[in-house]
Amino acid sequence: MASSVPRKSSVDVQGLLEQLTLQEKMSLLAGNGLWYTAAVARLGIPSVKVTDGPNGARGELFTAGTKAACFPAAVSIAATWDTGLAQRIGKAMAEETKTKGASVLLGPTVCPHRSPLGGRNFESFSEDPLLAGLQAASVIQGLQENGIAATVKHFAANEQETMRNTINVVVGERALREIYLKPFEIAIKKAQPLALMTSYNKVNGVHADQNEHLVKEILRDQWGYNGLVMSDYGGTNSLEDTIKVGVDLEMPGPPQHRRLAAVEKALEAGTLDMASINDRVRSVLQLVKNVGKFEHPEQVAETAINDPAHQRLIREAGADGIVLLKNEGGVLPLQTAKLGSIAVLGQSKTCFSNGGGSANLNAHYKITPYEALQKAVGETVDLRYATGAHIHRKLPCWTAGVTDGKGQPGWTIKEYMFAAKDKGFSDGLQPQRTYAFPLTTYMAIEHVPDAIRLEGTFTPTSTGAHYFSLPALGHAKLFIDDELVFDAGPSPDPRGYSEGGEFEIRKQHDFVQGETYRLRVEVLAPSAEQAMIPLMAGRIMFHLGFMEQKDYEEDLIANAVAAAKDADVALVFVGNSAEWETEGHDAANMSLPANGSQDRLVEAVAAVNPRTVVVNCTGVPVAMPWIDSVAGLLQCWFAGQEAGNAIVDVLLGVVSPSGRLPVSFPRSLEDTPSYGNFPGDLATVTVHYAEGIEVGYRHYDKHPEKVLFPFGAGLSYTTFEFGPAVISPQELVHGGVVTVQLQVKNTGAVAGKEVVQVYLAPPQLESGSDRPVRPAKVLAGFAKVEVAPQSSVSVTVEIFFESAAFWDTAAACWGVDSGEYAVLIGNSSASCTDHGSLTVKESFTFGP
Ligand code: BGC
Prior knowledge:
alpha+beta, carbohydrate metabolism, 22% helix, seven-stranded antiparallel beta sheet, glycoprotein, binds beta-D-glucopyranose, Rossmann fold, six-stranded mixed beta sheet, TIM Barrel, polysaccharide degradation, Jelly Rolls, single chain, globular, Fn3-like
């Protein structure tokens, strides 16, 4: 079952370890900069490169880096319910990682979705630990079978971004084991990821990276994990404890905690021992060996290879993850031969390829739905476009009408190093580096100038009090014709930049059409106090946003309504851009951004066109106040660089939709199990996982009225029938596997794929029983099959004995109680029906 294929290497790790000096050992236990482990040239120990992230290999630069393939987000992969496809994506991501000269990919992310507000949910698979664990295992297998180490992350209980570095997650042992650790356990036991990343947060009072219970007892001792454990970036919180519990690598370097002088002191004082250091070093050397770096020590330059096979795979996977949630009167697929006009509204000229933060990368290209639709039917059908709503969180980059020093479109950026940190700009100070800069978003993470200047000449297309904004990490100022028009202050709060612009201050300035204006932005790097997070000290980030007043204040809805009124069909594209769904930030509510603009658009369009179809691109469930007034709804997630083609393939029926929800869609935020306990109490920096194991459908099964679309749901353009199930054996024993076999018939007219979902319903407790209360059912297995029209396919799903288990907190082990377990089968958690049962004759325990 092992998916990791440590390459055959004769390198003697123990022999090397014995020759290392303490200084060399410690150099190996922290990153060398952001993306490398340290080399020890004396002993021929090469450096290993790592790269983000969960949906592709970005390479070294956070912005405008080497182009890379953008794969569907994990939630979209989960929605395919296709483990083979997930594995093929893993393989392609391995190929991409190699083009970035890296041997370790910092993904997949597997933490369960706890609340629809979670900013990083899109990066992660599902609310259900089995679906998440199996899809993650498949991605890991695909990566590692192709020579790239996977990094499963963030261990553990990292279900929110709010105060992510400090929040204390208070979670019971049962929920921890059954829900939050389970995807890690499944992925680790099935696919043995060569690396794991700890999370930033505390779990029950102790930061994850120094949490003995999590890292030592559970991960290392109980699960026997012997891969490399690294901290999240800036997420190493001490010297001794992290080394002792088993965190091998402090990321990034230079170390904040693992400094030689401190280590020598700790060794002398006896608070740290050499055996622990040696264990950590052994792990790092083993990773270097496992990824074959001793045999190929050379550093490989980053390249951009736009592989047609990857393009096809991303399109196929994106389409297979799309979930058709509503299709009244068969409005979909679009019968384009019979359609004269389609209103193409909303964000149809945006490709919602990915979420923000470390999932971001410079995609080879991005196909928008509008482009894809135009290519497919633009010659024969009248496409009527209107944006209909602004959804900016930050004003867009200030690019239109701007030229640089050479008269070319874009800006010039100059990076400065000061003679001394407190000197500032002095007369005659020359920039260290000057280069053309196309956009107005800047992040100096990899190299750290003391200050930057951004210069350009701007000619507006209209007269007005135009809007601009300048969120920054650092002290930012905007000058127009050398006059200071905005001083953002020393920016003590980096969230203005890194949390996507929630703190963006919008200002207005008068401009006259056709006049030219000399623009200059200056930003000074923040001190440690100004940056708030030590890792961010000295690193400049800023975004210069701009909109002309006429565009900012235009009545977009009226245009969209006019386009929709007599169109044969109205497609309204809505979603969360990467500014809204991103690392570093949780949503404040479940509504689409911004300030209701997209909901108002859908409502206005649906009011004039009964054939309105909403195409939603979000990584999470959103509030749908208009659901009863639209005819169709597609949930498309973030489908990668081919999102436009994938969506249009489904809209036109080239692909019959086969995605099924990997998360329940609640009716409202108040209906969610974590409501009132997300993101927790910010005054005490504590979040209580008070709902225990009642996460997702484990909660909604008890409250069906609270769910709009249940876990596992999704329609198709064809229809399927499930035959009777043959369950064998019918007894479940410790270590046992049961197979469930049945026929799936495609009873419709077109080919399609169906997901067979098998749930196990534990025996109901007698009243007065003191046994732990179990969920009504849990997902125990699934399979996806393609079936030709009017044909049948035999499907076999395996149920492992662990699916019947619960965490027995009193006994501190897993338990399976005797009794009858119903086997429920269907194509959603709500529609599955009784197909037989399994008997556990005698209760048993196992583990931990
Ligand atoms: C994220 C990690 C990521 C790392 C490097 C951290 O802030 O939490 O997921 O791999 O940065 O970019």
